Amino acid sequence: MVKAIFFDIDGTLVSFQTHTVPESTREALRLLREKGIKVFIATGRPKTLMMDAVGDLDFDGYVTLNGAHCFTANHEDIYKGCVPQEDIERLIQYQHDHPEMPFVFVHDNTWFLTHEDEAVREIARLIQIDIPEIRPIETAREKEILQIMGYFPEEKDEEIFGKVLTHCEPMRWHPLFADIIARGNSKSHGIDQMLAYYGIDLKDTMAFGDGGNDIPMLKHVGMGIAMGNAAPHIQAAADYITTSVDEEGIMQALKHFHIL
Q: Which InterPro entries does UniProt cross-reference here (predicted)?
């Protein structure tokens, strides 16, 4: 019996084509809550950008920043997993040697960017967000950094995570950049924090996702659903593949499993 369902945002709840939540998905969320099934967000977005995308919808809790920050519908913190300061210091030195490489730092309800390039602009256009304020990388010192976004290709991962951000790992859903969080955090870890808070068993859960950072979540929950617009390797991690976000994929899967 499904008691809780977790939803990614970009490419799952929100269409990359229309940048809106389809009406069928809005109706599905409303019907789920009427049935007493708890609905949660599980996203790589920080709180402020999450609210921009789905702030007009009701959820029972939020797993944000790929599990690094989890909180209730009333914005009561359940869990924070910050990047260690020693990693921040190494990254400050690394960025001085590689000034062409932009980084975004997320802390509290704010974020900032070290500098802007075409990759930053392309991702901002893709998910319809404003580009953060530009500040010196030293601004990250002595802050509770919950996530870093690094605009570099995957071939740089070994160097950066082997020598600089040694206590962190990437959650990549686009080739131009990686969401970077403290090792041990993930959407699946955030889900566990949420389930413990609400007293729900993992076997009674379902999740919907479409990106690489959704793979741990899709494998972890009782039933992992990949969107039809997900890449083949993400679909391979799921228990079921539904139609795309623009083809009423969420409603289709919920009807398939007789939840709605």
A: Cof, HAD-like_sf, HAD-SF_hydro_IIB, HAD_sf
- In the block, tokens 């969107």 appear at 227
pTM attached to this predicted model: 0.84
Region 35-44: what's the mean pLDDT?
96
**Gyration radius of the chain's alpha carbons:** 18
Same fold, 4-80+185-256 and 85-182: no
Query: Where does 63-142 have alpha helices with state H?
Result: 85-97, 118-127
Query: Residue type for 154, please?
Result: E
Q: Which of 8, 87, 210, 214 is catalytic?
A: 8
Tell whether domain 85-182 is in CATH 3.30.1240.10: yes
Residue 1 tokens read as: 């019996």
Per DSSP, the three-state class of 247 is helix
CB of 17 closer than 8 Å to CB of 246: yes
87 is catalytic: no
User: What is the C-alpha separation between 166 and 84, in angstroms, rounded?
Assistant: 10
Identify the CATH class of 4-80+185-256: alpha beta
Rounded-to-integer distance, Cα 135 and Cα 157, Å: 24
